[in-house]
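Checklist before submission:
- one chain only
- standard amino acids only
- sequence pasted in full

Submission:
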Amino acid sequence: MLEFQNIMIPHPTINVLVVEDHTAFREGLAALINGTAGFACCGAWSSIEQALSCQASIRPDLALLDIDLPGMSGIEGIRLLTGRWPSLYPLMLTVHDDDRRILNALCAGANGYLLKGTAPARLLECLKEASEGGAPMSPEVARRVVEVFRKRPPQKADYDLTPHELRILGLLVSGENYKTAAVKIGVTAHAVSFHVRRIYEKLHVHSRSDAVAKALRSGLFD
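Returned file contents:
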């Protein structure tokens, strides 16, 4: 008779690309990522142009991008980086917390927006959350995004989204993932996933970042 022992199956490594022009900060990020189990820094560059010229064998899952960079800005670089690596989840890591840059980054396709004061342990939590489909934001940033909706409550949109779908979309825009959104509205994560698929169909998009960007560009919450 065969006996089966418990076998620990290792979790896949989360590969993170870093684009930051401040040398000490960039090296610190790389050391933090490489020194944490389950993570690897697959490249650290000082500009978007350098990141795009890296070897083809690199396969990043996430990217931490500064905004103010020599040459192309981090926001401008989002589409080029995701064009090269379509499954890449870009996250902004910056000192800027103004509405214009936050909304521009989200509209460009950023899956999260973090401030440089974020504690190392929290930063790693955000990377893990993003790898699981979340959209992490620093509390200050999330409050600014929420304030946009408070100023002008959601209205019925041209995309024929129901009030329930609009509420779910608003939660996604403000940084909630399926699990936390489900808790806030009192349904299961599976139900949220079902509604998100309907939202994608109505907005004619195929990803969370595209849905968030289209919602902001289209003024669904204006």
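Reviewer check: The longest strand covers residues 39-45.
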